[in-house]
Amino acid sequence: MQTSPLARARGVLFDMDGVLYNAEQPIAGAAEAMAWVRAQGIPRLFVTNTTSRSRAVLAEKLARFGIAGGEEDILTPPVAAAEWLRAHAAGGAVAVFVRPATRAEFAGLDLLDDEAERGAAYVVIGDLGTHWDFRTLNRAFRLLHHNPEARLIALGMTRYWLAADGISLDVAPFVAALEHAAGRKAMVFGKPAANFFHAAAARLSLAPEEVLMVGDDVEADVRGAMAAGLAGALVRTGKFRDADLEGAPHPDLVIDSVADLAAAWNYRYFTNRTALPRSL
Ligand SMILES: [Mg+2]
């Protein structure tokens, strides 16, 4: 009888920044919500497009906020991209534009020297944040330009995020610049690419339609997940703005914060499209 996407969910994917914390500020009730998920035995995985930190650093951050989770509980674009490259990049050098802490995820691959402007078979673009400058972006362009066969790989296509000092450019704008200049489309590892959500569901041993994605990015988290066959829940924390509710499709669930997840989960016959009743 009940076929709402939320009612089918048996496992949950959690975005991290904007859902569990804003930069260095924990979101009220997030630790309790994560403890509830564990106590219920609900399969869960943290999925973040953050490429500026390694999983070890992210796990430490979770611990600091009272949230249990090891590196194996976190799926990031560098992990997914490195897995793909290890399987497919035999014989081709890989140029990675990521912060030093993230390079470890690419261990075992034939990594190109940081100054090289030729010779890459794969050009991987992550979040360099304030480390981006013209010379660095131009070096990525030259690597692509000098090898028309080189693949451009994007570690997520998040457009912006809420940094401690305000809204900030994420990976997508830099990838878009390189796509435009080099005249080729990027392969995307990370949200909102469907293969990333499917890989995450597989890690929970669940089908995509059995998984709920909880995020603060209506496009990369929620609509990306819904397009991949998952249920999508939008939290009104992090980068959320009221205008996010104007587009289509509407999220399967909208909650004030992740702290309301338990109520929504226990009330899954409630058929979405509005915030939960106050009485919950
Ligand atoms: Mg987020």
SSE layout and pairing:
Layout: H1 5-8, E1 11-14, E2 21-22, E3 25-26, H2 30-40, E4 44-47, H3 55-64, E5 74-75, H4 77-88, E6 94-97, H5 100-103, E7 122-125, H6 134-146, E8 151-155, E9 160-163, E10 166-169, H7 172-182, E11 187-189, H8 194-203, E12 211-215, H9 218-227, E13 231-235, E14 253-255, H10 261-266
Parallel strand pairs: 1-4, 1-12, 4-5, 6-7, 7-8, 8-11, 12-13, 13-14
Antiparallel strand pairs: 2-3, 9-10
Magnesium ion (MG) is lined by residues 15, 17-19, 215-217, 238.
Give a structural overview.
- With 280 residues, the chain is an alpha/beta fold.
- The protein folds into two domains: 11-37 and 197-268, HAD superfamily/HAD-like (Rossmann fold, 3-Layer(aba) Sandwich), CATH 3.40.50; 77-189, HAD superfamily/HAD-like (Rossmann fold, 3-Layer(aba) Sandwich), CATH 3.40.50.
- It has helices at 5-8, 30-40, 55-64, 77-88, 100-103, 134-146, 172-182, 194-203, 218-227, 261-266, and strands at residues 11-14, 21-22, 25-26, 44-47, 74-75, 94-97, 122-125, 151-155, 160-163, 166-169, 187-189, 211-215, 231-235, 253-255.
- Helix 6 (134-146) crosses helix 7.
- It is globular, with a radius of gyration of 19 Å.
- The structure holds magnesium ion.
- Magnesium ion binds at residues 15, 17-19, 215-217, 238.
